Amino acid sequence: MKEKYLFTSERLGFRNWTKKDLHQFAKINADIDVMEHFPKPLTEKETSDFIDRQQKHYEKNGYNYFATEIIKTGELIGFIGFAYQDYKTDFTPATDIGWRLKKSSWGNGYATEGAIKCLEFAFNKLNLKKIISTCTAKNSQSENVMKKIGMKKIGEFKHPKLKAYPKYEKCFCYEINKSMWQQRL
């Protein structure tokens, strides 16, 4: 099973997206608890568009928000990985690390485990120098993962893509660079 993955952590496999992921990932994106810190759950069409964008992003950059599975079962639990962000802020353009996992997988340490392995991949294989991560001000779970993986808060900002959604507009930004990563080891 491991051969289909770009890389693995102890329990998780990371790969590019396929159209076969649509149904399972659409269920994750339709869950109101999973999408609590986003303006709305996503439709199946929006999920299909997301997968298309991720496939194109991978072809262009060699990374994306990787489809993430539990190796032992092959179950798709969501994504952990990267996206190049060029919306207008003081800290972009930059590569962002993010995650979205199905509710049944919460509380198992998957986001932290996966994000650590993704950072290792980013710094050692992709030779990226710096990674950022953002979350809404009320998303303490994601902010905790950012802290656990060694990221440092660099500021608060109003997300330019969320202007139409004042409830979500205030966000935090964290970052980690290659030397911070190496010091943490």
TrEMBL record:
<dbReference type="GO" id="GO:0016747">
    <property type="term" value="F:acyltransferase activity, transferring groups other than amino-acyl groups"/>
</dbReference>
<dbReference type="Pfam" id="PF13302">
    <property type="entry name" value="Acetyltransf_3"/>
</dbReference>
<feature type="domain" description="N-acetyltransferase">
    <location>
        <begin position="12"/>
        <end position="174"/>
    </location>
</feature>
<dbReference type="InterPro" id="IPR016181">
    <property type="entry name" value="Acyl_CoA_acyltransferase"/>
</dbReference>
<protein>
    <submittedName>
        <fullName>GNAT family N-acetyltransferase</fullName>
    </submittedName>
</protein>
<dbReference type="InterPro" id="IPR000182">
    <property type="entry name" value="GNAT_dom"/>
</dbReference>
<dbReference type="InterPro" id="IPR051531">
    <property type="entry name" value="N-acetyltransferase"/>
</dbReference>
<keyword id="KW-0808">Transferase</keyword>
